[in-house]
Amino acid sequence: MRTALILAVAVFLVTLLVRLPAQLLLPLLPAEVTCAAPAGTIWRGRCEQLRVGTWSVGQLSWSLHPVALLRLRVAADVASQDPAVRAQAQLELARNGDLMISALAATIAVPGGSGPVAAGASGTLLLAIDSARVQRGHLVAVQGKVDLQQLRIENPAADLGSFELKFAPANESGPIMGQLSDTGGPLSVVGLLQLSPSGSYDLEGSIAPRANAGANLTQLLQLLGPPDPQGRRAFSLAGSL
C-alpha cells in the first residue's frame, strides 16, 4: 500500500511538472530578455517574439531535454519560424554560464543597416555551424561556415557577389581563425579573420575586380588605394563584437 502511494505521488508530481505553463519561465529570464505571448509548457513551449536587448526573433519554439538536468545542465532543441530568421539548433547551458551550440542551421535576411552588412546594403546570411562555445558572453570556439549571399550596395548601385567564411577546429586558448573567400561574382576576395576571446576581431585580405565588374564597382575599389602588380588591393577591418 505504501509503495503504491509513493508511486502515485511521484506520477502526480511528474505530470504536474510536465504541464507547467511556459509563462512560469518569465520571472527567471534576465532583465534584457523578454518573451512575448508565451504558450505551451516549460518543457515544450514557444514565444511569439523573443527579444534580447535590441535584437528580436519571432515564432521561437523549444523542447527541453530532461536528462540533461541530471547533469545540472539545461539542454534544448530550439527553432525559429520567423520569416526573417529561420533557424534551428541544439543548445546546452552549463552551471557556470558556458553555452554550447551545435547543429546550428539558419537563413537570415539582412536588410541595409543591420547585422554585419553596412547601411545601404543587403544580403542573405546562411549559417552552418557544427559547434560553437560562448564563455562569459564571448565566442571562444566555433567550427563551421557562414555564407553571405547576393551582397548588394545601393550607393553606388552594385552587386558584389557572394562570400564564404570557414572556421576550422582550433585550440580554445588562441584566437578563432576564419578563412574568407568569394564564391563567385564580380570580385575576387581572399582574407583571414581573427576573433579573440575578448570579442575583438581583425580581418585582413585582398580584393580585385573580375572582368564582369561594372564601372561603379571598379571606381569604388579605387578608394582602397593603388593595386599591387597583380591588380589586387589590400583591405583591413578591426573592431569588437
What does this structure look like?
There is one protein chain. The protein is about 10% helix and about 55% strand. It has about 240 residues and is mainly beta. It has a domain at about 100-240. The N and C termini lie far apart (about 60 Å).
SS elements, strand count = 14
Low-confidence stretches: 1-17
> What summary fits the major beta sheet?
14 strands, antiparallel
Residues in helices, as a percent range = 10-25%
The proportion of residues in beta strands is over 45%
What is the compact description of this entry?
This protein is mainly beta and 241 residues long. The protein is 12% helix and 55% strand.
Q: Descriptors for this entry?
A:
241 residues; mainly beta; 14-stranded antiparallel beta sheet; disordered N terminus
List the helices and strands and how they pair.
Elements: H1 2-18, E1 33-36, E2 39-40, E3 44-52, E4 55-64, H2 66-69, E5 74-82, E6 85-93, E7 99-110, E8 121-135, E9 138-154, E10 157-167, E11 176-182, E12 187-195, E13 200-209, H3 215-221, E14 233-240
Antiparallel strand pairs: 1-3, 2-3, 3-4, 4-5, 5-6, 6-7, 7-8, 8-9, 9-10, 10-11, 11-12, 12-13, 13-14
